Amino acid sequence: MITAEEIRAKLLEAFPNARVQVVDTTGTFDHFDAVVVEESFRTLSRVRQHQAVYEALGDAFRDRIHALALKTTAP
Amino acid sequence: MSEKISLPIAADQRGPGQQSAPRTRAQGGDVMSEIEADVKGQKVFLYMKGTPDFPQCGFSARVVQILQHLGAEFGSCDILVDPEKRDAVKVYGKWPTIPQLYIDGELVGGCDITTEMFQSGELQTLLGASK
User: How far is Cα B131 from Cα B112, in angstroms, rounded to an integer?
Assistant: First the structure.
């Protein structure tokens, strides 16, 4: 269990200048939609962008989030 | 002095010339080596839940459908029957979910990215490019 705000904070830690939006889609603290708009993504393929987000979430992802629908892009 | 330091490191990091071929667990390799053998042994390889004929998950089924629609030949591995590999694949791909599609030994993505790349035509380009 994790809150959308905790996920957002974790992502902003890794990407301080990004625009980050996280929504708890089921209200059960384990299924989320996330949008990350980050300048450094401009040169990365989509799989690398997602990998960067997963890495930023680290253990939180494996243990506490069941599902994350992720959208990443450059501004 | 710097030689003394660099020697053991050099012994650890096998140079490109002497890299041993990836081996399956049956051949005495570890599970990571087996994954490398999977994804580098053929152009297209899919880790999935179930088999191409009997997918056990909608996301895996969609990737299979796309590959079959494009007439791509691909190897696959059902991670549901191999818990050790299921965990190892997530570490290997730095990717937390299954399915995972590999082309030319590189992770392309899961279901969402594969679908987007199919719709944009990028996937067809990747599959068509011979290596």
Answer: 25
